[in-house]
Structures are given as structure tokens and as C-alpha cells.
Specification:
The chain is built from eight helices and eight strands; from the N terminus they run βββαβααββααααββα. The protein is an alpha/beta fold.
Length: about 270
């Protein structure tokens, strides 16, 4: 059965910033990139993007807090992520109601829920379902590619970001060897061939957002393929959650995990009912 997997790198802190979106379509054999965008200008544009591509079976992975109930401090899922991945620079930003009393990402989740989307925790397998899940690319990439630390493609000097994005593009090519595989179709290959050395300013940020959206879309596919048995749910639907892929099946690479203490297995996060 073919399904649709949508990744959203949501600019939830300010609607003045653009959001990224990516759409995969696939089945149990493989998935292909259908579209990628870095020009979604509002929450309404993101919602329209999702509705445009959604099918009977659709999984939407969103890099933004979908549930915020704590008045102060961090959400519990953010604390757990920090414990597991902080040593590898994969901690989360803090979100709470004091900082973000009307977070647009929570509003997006509410709008998706009214359109039949359900939060992923608690679902055995999302067949003939419309599902949303909160994700965070940094720990996902650590797990997918067995990295000793995050890829530094978001912050820092322009040269560092350019180099980090180029490295991420190379890693994303390896998803064709993963389980499940993301085919390196001409559309995906053309995007991953983007040279970053000349990018700066808004163009560099747009490339980052598009890359994040593809990562999120692949996590959606990964969740659909493996289900709860191949992912860890940090937190829960009451206080907020983040889903991280952890099943075997990532492509082998030159860089392997070196810090066993930081694995989700040793962190033992509370897992939502499956």
C-alpha cells in the first residue's frame, strides 16, 4: 500500500521566517522524493501544503513542539533528549507556556487534529491513518548514521554551515542503502548536488530548511515502516513527546557511534504504549 510522508521544518518561533517542506511517496519497498520547498511563508501555508499532498495514509513529521503544557522550564521530553544526546551536542531548545503562550506549532497540531490527524504515540501501525509526530533532526541523524556527534550545519560561521550542509547532503545519499530505502532518484540527486560553497544569507538558510524537511520526511517514512518497535518515544502525549528512530538498518559509514553511554537504550526513556 502506497503512503505519503511529509516533513515540515516549521518556523514556529516567528512567522516572519519561512518553513521547509518535503514530500515522499512510497511503500514497503522504497520511497521517492516528490517535492521539496523552503518557501512556506506561514502556518496557513504549511497547513495547505500538507492538505495538498495528504492521502488516506499520511504521516507528517514536524520539527517543532506540538504539545506544550508546562508553565516554566523544559518539557520532560526535552530533558530526556538532553540526557541522552547532550554530550553529543544534541540537546533541545526549551519550550514552555511562559516563553510561548500561543505557539504556532501547537496551533498547527490542533488544526491537523481537526482534520483527522492523530498523534503517533499509542498507534500500533499507521495504516489507513493520518498521523502526526514531533521529531528533532539532530538525535535522529545521530541514530540513523551512527554519528559520534551532531552534524554542524545549522549554526556557527558561514564556512562551518556550508561544510555541514554539504556533509549532510552526502549522508542523505546513503539513505538509499537504509532500511527502508529512500531512492536516489534524479529529483533527489539534483537537490543533493547543490553546491554550498557559494551559498550565503537567505540562500544558505533555505538549503538548511529544505535539508531538514527531507530528514523529517524520512523520519515519517521510517516511523511508518518500523512502527513503535523501531523508534523511541521520549515523553508522552500529555506533556509532549519527541520520536527518534533507533532500529537497525542504517547504512554503514566511516563514522560509527563511539559513546555507548549516550544511546537511547542506556537512557531508557519512557516509551508510550504501543
Amino acid at each position: 500500500m502506497e503512503a505519503v510522508f511529509i516533513g515540515i521544518d516549521f518556523a514556529w518561533r516567528s512567522e516572519r521566517n519561512l518553513s521547509g517542506g518535503a514530500v515522499l511517496r512510497g511503500d514497503r519497498e522504497s520511497a521517492q522524493l516528490i517535492e521539496v520547498s523552503a518557501s512556506l511563508a506561514s502556518c496557513s501555508a504549511v497547513l495547505a501544503y500538507i492538505e495538498k499532498h495528504a492521502a488516506a495514509t499520511t504521516v507528517v513529521a514536524i520539527d517543532a513542539p506540538l504539545i506544550i503544557t508546562n508553565q516554566e522550564g523544559q518539557r520532560h521530553c526535552e530533558t530526556l533528549i538532553g540526557r541522552c544526546y547532550g554530550a553529543r551536542h544534541g540537546s533541545c531548545h526549551t519550550s514552555n507556556l511562559s516563553l510561548y503562550p500561543q505557539a504556532t506549532s501547537v496551533g498547527l497540531a490542533s488544526k491537523l487534529k481537526s482534520r483527522g490527524f492523530r498523534h503517533a504515540p499509542g498507534l500500533t501501525h499507521p495504516e489507513n491513518e493520518r498521523v502526526m509526530l514531533e521529531v528533532y533532526p539532530h538525535p535522529a541523524l545521530i541514530e540513523l548514521f551512527h554519528l559520534p556527534s551532531i552534524l554542524k550545519y545549522k549554526k556557527g560561521r558561514v564556512a562551518t554551515r556550508r561544510s555541514g550542509q554539504q556533509e549532510l547532503q552526502q549522508w542523505l545519499r546513503k539513505l538509499s542503502l537504509s532500511s527502508p530505502p529512500l531512492e536516489c532518484t534524479p529529483r533527489l540527486s539534483d537537490f543533493l548536488d547543490t553546491g554550498t560553497n557559494s551559498l550565503r544569507g537567505s540562500a544558505l538558510k533555505a538549503n538548511e530548511d529544505a535539508l531538514d524537511a527531507i530528514v523529517c520526511a524520512y523520519i515519517a517514512y521510517y516511523y511508518w515502516f518500523w512502527g513503535a518497535r523501531g523508534t523511541h518515544t521520549f515523553g508522552d502525549v500529555d506533556s509532549g513527546y519527541i520520536i527518534v528512530p533507533t532500529a537497525p538498518g542504517a547504512p554503514s559509514g566511516e563514522v560509527r557511534r563511539t559513546d555507548a553511554k549516550a544511546t537511547p537504550e542506556s537512557c531508557q526513556p519512557p516509551v508510550a504504549s504501543t
